[in-house]
Structures are given as structure tokens and as C-alpha cells.
């Protein structure tokens, strides 16, 4: 574990309503799950998002697709393990930058600091997540319920029983992940036989379109919708924090 990264695995996650959370361009989206998709939420900040979900019923756990716990130097073991777990799509897991790098005023300075403390620079995308990374860090300290960090691609690889090869940004990749969420796919993806029906069914069940967000991507929808069974079978990589 990298220095300064106080993250531990407290054991199996209990039962109850699960909230899957992912960042999007305008803020955050979430899908609440208990024996199936129950509701969808959007807010500009994660505190408001989880408050809206809690207003509709108690939550057993909140699963967030965002690094929780930044290293002071080196790389988080969690990120290394997640990359190893998903094989060909390992680049979809960005290595969490060191804390000092995110304090820099611009990307060039941040990348130089990160290279000195971890051995590699950071992408513009990772640096652009700075506000959300710090927002999550502040929010999680005051959450009275369980919060776990997950990575969607690790979840999908576990559900499929093998590493995925199609990116979620592609039509075949998005369709296959939706089929996995609905329990209708396993094993290697077969893009030629992809069925559009899971997409329509999942969109109806998620109720995402009422949000009216033109910049909410299909990938955002899929990443925020891990079924409860993913949490219970610990399909996510083992990086947790209460």
C-alpha cells in the first residue's frame, strides 16, 4: 500500500439497498438497487446525490467509481490489482495521482510532481478529476453508512467470467455490458449477435431519460448501475473504506 493511503478491506459487504455512483460531466449520477433497479438520481455534488437517494429509503452501502484515499508517493496496490484483473482494457483504470500533484495549479506541474513521487506522470483526464476527488474525500468522512470504492470494468469482468475486449464506448461494448447487468450474457462478447433489446429494457428500468441531460453518456449509465449481486459477490476490486 502506498504511503498515506489509509484504505482497508473490512470484510464482506452486508445486504440492503445499494447505491452505485459515477461521475458525469455535469456532476454525479447514481442508480439505487435492491432486488432490481429501483431509481435513478442526478445532482451536481455527491452529498446532494446521496441525500436524495436516502430520502427514498435507507442505503446499505454506497459504491463509488472514484479513488478514495490518495497516496503520498508510489502507486496504490488497489489500482495495480484492478489493472491486472481486467487485462486488455487495463488502461481504463487510471493510477490515482499522489496528493501533492493534485495541489499543483496546472497539469504540467502536476505531472512533473507525480513523476517524481510515483515514477510516472498523470493524464489530463486524471488531473481534471481533481475537484471530484477532493469532493469525495470530504464527503466520505461524514457518511454514516458504508462506502466502498469499486471499478466497473472489474465488476463486468467478474460477471462475464473473463476479461472484456470491447470498450464501453463502442456499441458492442455497451450492449454487452447491459446484457451482463440483466443477467443475459456470460463469457466472451459476441458483437455480431448483440441484441438491442437489453438497451431498451435497461433504459426503461433505469428511467434515466427523464433527467434531460444531453451530456449523460451511455457509458455513464452502465457504470452507475452495478446490481446488488455485484456487491454481495464482491465482484469489485478489493479497495474499500468506511
3D architecture notes:
The chain has 242 residues and is α/β, with parallel strands linked by helices. It has one domain (18-92, 130-241). It has helices at residues 46-55, 77-86, 99-102, 107-118, 124-128, 130-140, 152-160, 171-181, 197-206, 218-223, 228-232, and strands at residues 18-24, 27-33, 37-43, 61-64, 146-149, 239-241. The radius of gyration is 17 Å and the shape is globular. Mean pLDDT is 75; it is low at 1-12, 191-203, 205-219 and 226-242.
Task: Give a short summary of the structure.
The chain is built from eleven helices and six strands.
SSE order in H/E notation? EEEHEHHHHHEHHHHHE
Strand content: 5-15%
Helix content: 25-40%
- Based on secondary structure, the structural category is alpha/beta
- What is the radius of gyration? 17 Å
Count of distinct structural domains: 1
Mean pLDDT across the residues is: 75
For the report, how would you describe the main beta sheet? Answer: 6 strands, mixed
Q: What sort of overall outline do the alpha carbons produce when their principal axes are compared?
A: globular
**Low-pLDDT residue spans:** 1-12, 191-203, 205-219, 226-242
How are the strands of the largest sheet arranged?
A: 3-2-1-4-5-6
Gap between N and C termini, in Å?
17 Å
Q: How many E strands?
A: 6
- Total number of helical segments? 11
List keywords for this structure.
disordered N terminus, 242 residues, six-stranded mixed β-sheet, 11 helices, alpha/beta, disordered C terminus
Blueprint (SSEs and pairs):
Blueprint: E1 18-24, E2 27-33, E3 37-43, H1 46-55, E4 61-64, H2 77-86, H3 99-102, H4 107-118, H5 124-128, H6 130-140, E5 146-149, H7 152-160, H8 171-181, H9 197-206, H10 218-223, H11 228-232, E6 239-241
Amino acid at each position: 500500500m502506498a504511503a498515506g493511503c489509509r484504505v482497508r478491506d473490512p470484510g464482506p459487504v452486508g445486504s440492503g439497498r445499494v447505491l452505485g455512483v459515477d461521475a458525469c460531466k455535469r456532476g454525479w449520477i447514481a442508480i439505487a438497487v435492491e432486488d432490481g433497479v429501483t431509481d435513478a438520481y442526478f445532482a451536481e455534488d455527491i452529498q446532494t446525490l446521496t441525500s436524495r437517494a436516502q430520502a427514498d429509503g435507507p442505503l446499505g452501502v454506497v459504491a463509488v467509481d472514484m479513488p478514495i484515499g490518495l497516496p503520498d508517493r508510489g502507486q496504490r496496490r488497489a489500482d495495480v490489482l484492478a489493472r491486472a484483473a481486467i487485462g486488455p482494457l487495463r488502461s481504463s483504470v487510471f493510477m490515482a495521482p499522489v496528493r501533492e500533484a493534485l495541489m499543483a495549479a496546472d497539469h504540467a506541474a502536476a505531472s512533473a510532481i507525480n513523476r517524481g513521487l510515483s515514477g510516472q506522470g498523470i493524464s489530463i483526464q486524471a488531473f481534471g478529476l481533481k475537484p471530484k476527488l477532493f469532493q469525495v474525500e470530504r464527503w466520505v468522512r461524514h457518511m454514516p453508512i458504508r462506502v466502498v470504492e469499486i471499478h466497473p470494468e472489474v465488476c463486468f469482468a467478474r460477471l462475464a467470467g473473463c476479461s472484456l475486449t470491447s470498450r464501453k464506448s463502442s456499441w458492442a461494448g455497451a450492449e454487452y455490458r447491459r446484457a451482463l447487468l440483466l443477467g443475459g450474457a456470460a463469457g466472451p462478447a459476441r458483437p455480431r449477435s448483440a441484441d438491442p433489446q437489453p438497451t431498451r429494457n435497461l433504459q426503461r428500468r433505469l428511467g434515466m431519460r427523464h433527467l434531460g441531460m444531453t451530456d449523460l453518456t451511455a457509458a455513464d449509465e452502465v457504470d452507475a448501475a452495478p446490481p446488488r449481486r455485484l456487491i454481495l459477490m464482491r465482484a469489485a476490486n478489493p479497495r474499500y473504506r468506511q
